[in-house]
Amino acid sequence: MSRKLATVTKVKKFFPIEGADRIEAAIMTTNNWVCVVKKGEFAADAWGVYFEIDSFLPKEERYIFLDGRSNKTMDGVEGYRLKTVKLKKQISQGLLMPLSAFPEITNPHEGDDVTELLNVKLYEPPDAHQGGRQMSNNCTLRPFPAFVRKTDQERIQSFGTLQLMMLDNQKYEVTEKIDGTSATYYFNKGRFGVCSRNHEVSTAFDKMNILQRFIHWITKTFFGKKSETKSGISAGVSQSVYEDMAIKYNLGTTLPALCNKLGVNLAVQGEIAGTSVSSNRLKLDSADFYVFDVFNINTQEYMDAEERYEIARRLGLQHVPVIDKSYTLNLHETPIEKLIESADGKSALSDNPREGLVYKSRNENTPQVSFKVISNNYLLKHSL
For the chain: N or C, fewer Cβ within 10 A? Predict the structure, then answer.
């Protein structure tokens, strides 16, 4: 399911900003984001459209006030990217506009997803595309496989009151949210595949047999440093940082072998972080892959935490840092504001600040629910 970036909503309440005469903060009825608006632009219970941060808005006259710091180009198209900002010491995330600016919304209901209607896209930096530092121009993109779920987590602020009630008083595994690029490696019905967040990517492995893969793994393991380009992509063979990790851990051989032994088709998902990835904000010495999910393709379910740890161990992969294996969420004692503050802290991978935390439920006989809590200080520091 694609991310809900533009939502029809009503204003729930306002609160003043110290030292500000012309602006105030608003909270909406459909979520828990805090957004700064002009004083008097909205009345209580007024209709509006809320755009989440990371939204890429088309370059249209109604958004012209965003000209300047918000201008971005994605896939050759000009538009505006929404980021976290601080105005008069108040953090503002996203954009709230009056419903009257959108005449195409003719029959509004609270919570309506108008992302597609308003042609809003999720902003992705250039590195995530062909020709960036994460992919060579030789890398061919194919549709993301339908039998695997894409890697994405809702932010805690995106949940409404009813959803929060369902999350409350549950046990969660808490892990570090690593700032990098997500990758998926799967073995399904005899085929090994490599994926970025949104696409399956071509690899040199596609044309190699098992013996050739083994020989190349030996070459990469013992002589790989000499064959890497400045971008981190292996010269002459690997077409992307995603394939680099497959080669580094010999996943084209070990994942099929493990799947065949267990009699199951699996997708191993995680984050690639380090050199040449997302500006390497953690300042890691090299790129590496950290597992955060294992998806059972046969049952269409995620494996639980203990099964995931074991799969990562058997494949020789690192797991994302685990902060707490059994945390009970109590939103009365730790409301959303405190939960967001708890996302601040030093990364377990370096001496630099972490991006945030991910919570995954650990309740038996119920579907897994998960969400992420991103550090506002991290977003502001890196202008995200």
Answer: N
The answer on 212 and 91 residing in a single domain is no
pLDDT digits (tens, 9 = 90+) for 342-383: 999 999 999 999 999 999 999 777 778 899 999 999 999 988
Mind listing the pLDDT tens digit for each residue in 45-55?
Answer: 899 999 999 99
Out of 62, 91, 123, pick the residue that ends a domain.
123
> How far is Cα 280 from Cα 187, in angstroms, rounded to an integer?
29
**pTM of the model as a whole:** 0.82
Cβ-contact 56, 107 below 8 angstroms:
no
Q: Are residues 116 and 147 in the same domain?
A: no
Are residues 172 and 116 both part of a single domain? no
CA distances from 289 to 119, 160, 178, 236, 320 (A): 33, 33, 10, 22, 9
**Domain presence at residue 62:** yes
Confidence at residue 277, expressed as pLDDT on a 0 to 100 scale: 81
Nearest alpha-carbon partner for 118 in 206, 57, 72, 67:
57
Domain ranges, residue 355? 141-381
Q: How far apart are CA 244 and CA 134, in angstroms?
A: 10
Which CATH number does the domain housing residue 145 bear? 3.30.470.30
